[in-house]
Amino acid sequence: MDATIAGILALDGLTNGAVYALLALATVLVFAVTRVIFIPQGEFVAFAALTLAFLQMGQVPGTVWFLLVMAAAVVLQDLAAGWRQRRPAARLAAQAARTLAFPAAVSLLTMWLAPMQLPMLAQAALTMALVTPFGSLLYRLAYESLADASVLVLLIVSVGVHFALVGLGLFFFGAEGFRNPSFWDQRWQLGPLTLSGQTLFIFAASFGLIVALWLFFERSLAGKALRATAVNRLGARLMGISSSSAGRLSFTMAAFIGALSGLLIGPTTTIFYDTGFLIGLKGFVAAVFAGLASYPLALVGALGVGLLEAYGSFWASAYKEVIVFAAILPVLLWRSLRDPHHEDH
Amino acid sequence: MNLLRKTLAAAAALLATTAFADVNIGVTISLTGPASGLGIPVGNQFKLFPKEIAGEKINLIVLDDASDPGKGVTNARRFVTQDKVDIIFGGSITVVSAAVAPIALESKTPQLSIAPVGVPPEQEHWMFRLPQGFSVMAHPIVEHMKKNGVKTVGFLGYTDAYGELWLKEFIKQGEAAGIKVTATERFARTDTSATPQALKLVSANPDAMLVVASGSGAAMPHKALVERGYKGRIYQTHAAATPDLVRIGGRDVEGSFVVSGPAVVAEQLPDSHPSKAVAVDFVTKYEAAVGRGMRNQFAAHAYDAQIVMEKALPVALKKARPGTPEFRAALRDAIEGMGRTIFAHGVMNWTKDDHWGYTNETGVLLKVVDGKFVVER
Question: In chain B, which residues have their Cβ closer than 8 Å to the Cβ of A313?
């Protein structure tokens, strides 16, 4: 290996690492606020990339029906709960309308706009609008009623949600893989390195999102409310912060970040309905580096995972995944030696 | 009331006796689940299966195994206990075929697998495979490399059994032809990048590259090689011989070579190719039923199952009646002994020791020209 190869590998690793970083941040965020280890985080990546691919072809993506089905399921769940609690019909109807309004509006808009072959950025925006509501719907459907369950129960629910989403993804998107066109086709020659516009786009978007998240948590009331819930759920509730709306908000943000990652990674590789899982899992490994608690450490961990993966596949491509996932073991050992704590369940 | 009951009983008895005399075929294919992309075309072709062969009524019992070997086993158990089938077709994916094989052996029922599958020697007796093995598919690639003076090859393949079996077969045939695999790299379908592997392969600078992957998954490594500046010939295997390769690969796969069974390029085959007439017949009938341009390599295997039955059934019927163990054994012997047979997907010659059976006339090398597959002469 010479400096040229090392340089190309480093660039490749950091590019993937930047996407893993976004997913790691989302994983940390969701865990901190709701104590859910959100395994299906990667599914949003695949959903967004595939949605954009369908829009590129001028077809109505399966996401539309998927979203409507999810929204309808949440409405049914709410109605059942409301009926059991004998709430007035008018309030139930208003609640259902609130749940359905955004998904239905976005779906109709997509059906109208899909055949028009809009410019790429407009399609990307539409994709984000379609995938982001999944977060809150998923939370209400699977996690909200279990908000006080143990971490282990929530983890098991996550595994179930993951399997359900992958199966539904196959149903709504089909088994074929898609590769999206680049957002920016420019290429620069930096000595031996070729820097593509897409790479710059990934770095810029990741950096921008991290800054935006920081501003959100430091400066906005909603962000501070999320932080308060993360520090102490009961305390936050006593201060008038609803833990269920904090959960919904964190899941919405996770879906948003996942969808953005999907748009970023879609042009660099072929995405299948089940690709997201492995990408999300690498984000999860990075989040474990950070003990599921620290955002800056998660960023460092993600870039580390990306580099490890790039160099690992150069030296021993057959053992690439083994190398990446085995790296979690020394980290876990180090973390548990450093701060041993006893779970109460 | 009494009359009605009597009539019903008589009808039932009549049905039972005719059903007993019919030839029953159990079909387990993956119509749903992750492998449904392969199973659905097979199912479409089975809808065109003849209702009668050699004067016998054929009952095709098609069950979905949902791409799940466990479900495949349940289906196969139902076939041999409840339906008393004479032969099993399926599964349409390797894992299901492998799971059904022990039941075929136990019940002494012949099995025509629509997926390539390796089984233990004792199960081999009842197992016949419709897809081409790796050796007949590697043959045209090796021949083409030899003709074009390729001496060294870089291998970039899946980490799974498909990649492994190809590598083994290619090394074996390559050595005989004086071609050496100088670099071997692996990747997985869901990987986000194959750049590191491509870097290493390109720096080894072999005369040609062999990419072993399937469908749309074959485009990503191919693009990575081209992006890293590889200018030599790139070869793809038969699992990549789908329009998806060109759809995703675009300009980067232009000029590369793909090996394929003959059925999907029926009209383009040279007249000297033995399968030409049969392959054209398959494509015409399939596309008339399913739609233009819908031809598919897996559906062609189902078409070939029909050719097997048309040839083997009359022979077996001379020896025994359907529904009996003797008939199943006779059918198995007839399939094994049917000799050189022209399939839509090549030339089949099953023998006692070889239940893969295709001859080297089978494989066709295609070149991607202007985004279309063209037969390379």
Answer: 185, 187, 191, 193-194, 196-197
pLDDT tens-digit profile of B104-121? 999 999 999 998 888 899
Best residue in A178, A313, A324, A325 for a mutation probing chain B (most B CBs within 10 Å)? A313
Cβ distance of B200 and A314 shorter than 8 Å? yes
What residue ranges do the domains of chain B occupy? 2-132+293-348, 134-260
Indicate if the pLDDT at residue B48 is higher than 90: yes
Domain locations along chain A: 3-338
Residue of B186, B196, B216 with shortest CB distance to A177:
B216
Q: Residue A243's pLDDT is what?
A: 86
The Cα–Cα gap between B344 and B302 comes to 10
Q: Please tell me which residue, B9 or A67, carries the higher pLDDT value.
A: A67
Angstrom CA distances, A206 to A22, A45, A222, B194, stand at: 7, 14, 22, 22
* Residue A117, both tokens: 């072959």
Distance CA A152, CA A35 (A): 10
* B-chain residue closest to A2, CA distance: B203
Residues of B in contact with A274 (CB under 8 A): 34, 190
Amino acid at B254: E
Q: CB–CB of B184/B171 below 8 Å? A: no
- Distance (Å, whole) CA B192 – CA B162: 20
B241/A199 Cα distance (integer angstroms): 31
Q: Is the pLDDT of residue B18 over 80?
A: no
Q: What's chain B's average pLDDT?
A: 89
Long-range Cβ pairs for the range B13-20 (8 Å, 24+): B18/B57, B19/B59, B20/B322, B20/B323
Q: At what angle do helices A243-265 and A120-131 cross, to 10 degrees?
A: 150
User: CA separation (Å) from B64 to A145, B42, B80, B101?
Assistant: 36, 11, 16, 17
Beta bridge partners of B57: B52
pTM: 0.80
Q: How confident is the model at residue B4 (pLDDT cuts 50, 70, 90)?
A: low
Question: Which stretches does DSSP call E strand in chain B?
Answer: 23-29, 52-53, 56-64, 87-90, 111-113, 127-129, 152-158, 180-187, 208-212, 233-236, 257-260, 341-343, 346-348, 364-369, 372-375
What's the rounded Cα separation, in Å, for the pair A273 and A46?
Answer: 6
In single-letter form, the type of residue at position A119 comes to P
Cβ atoms B119, B101 nearer than 8 A:
yes
- pLDDT < 50: residue spans in chain A: 344-345
Q: B199 and A314 in contact by Cβ < 8 A?
A: yes
Residue type, B228: R
**B193 with A9: Cβ contact below 8 A:** no
The structure tokens 């759920």 sit at A233
The domain defined by B2-132+293-348 folds into: Rossmann fold (3.40.50)
| Chain position carrying tokens 């042009």 | A267
The amino acid that residue B345 corresponds to is: H
Question: Please, what is the Cα angle at A201 between A198 and A206, to 5 degrees?
Answer: 130
Contact between B196 and A270 using a beta-carbon 8 Å cutoff: no
Average pLDDT over every residue of B300-321: 93
Q: Which fold has domain B134-260?
A: Rossmann fold (3.40.50)
DSSP for A223-261 reads HHHHHHHHH-HHHHHHTT--HHHHHHHHHHHHHHHHHHH
